[in-house]
Amino acid sequence: MTGKSFDPPITQISVEELAQKLASNDASIQLVDVREPQELAIASLERFVNLPLSEFVEWGDEVPTMFNPHAETLVLCHHGVRSAQMCQWLVAQGFTNVKNIAGGIDAYSLLVDPSVPQY
Questions:
Q1: Cα–Cα distance between 35 and 78 in angstroms, integer?
Q2: Beta-sheet strand order (sheet of 11-13)
Q3: 80-98 residue pLDDT tens
Q4: Distance between CA 43 and CA 65 in Å, rounded?
Q5: Segments of the chain assigned E as strands
Q6: What are the residue ranges spanned by the domains of the chain?
Q7: Catalytic residue from among 77, 84, 87, 107
Q8: From CA 58, how far away is CA 50, in angstroms rounded?
Q9: Of 6, 18, 69, 102, which one is least surrounded by beta carbons within 10 A?
Q10: What is the average pLDDT value for the chain, to the nearest integer?
Q11: pTM of this structure
Q12: For the domain 12-112, what is the CATH code?
């Protein structure tokens, strides 16, 4: 073993692509925000379901009934690290169209909508 991960790479989308998808009002897209409630109090985007990673034991078993495993699922966090972890987990659960939002809400604030507060 070389110590390298053999997990398939997670597909990423840019915050600009996210903005286009949000503007399209496509109701079939599933939006998941894995940040903590105190982070959402500072900055959030509409239509995202909040599933804080720290509360995984509370919602982990419900994910298969909450979401369609074959629908496009976009995952957001502050910078893209926690959302990438969530993406890996969703893929392991059988989700087939999962995308990490590169740069997270921080990049969204910088590159798309400066009215979204940075923290």
A1: 7
A2: 11-13, 98-101, 73-76, 30-33, 49-50
A3: 999 999 999 999 999 999 9
A4: 27
A5: 11-13, 30-33, 49-50, 73-76, 98-101
A6: 12-112
A7: 77
A8: 12
A9: 6
A10: 93
A11: 0.92
A12: 3.40.250.10
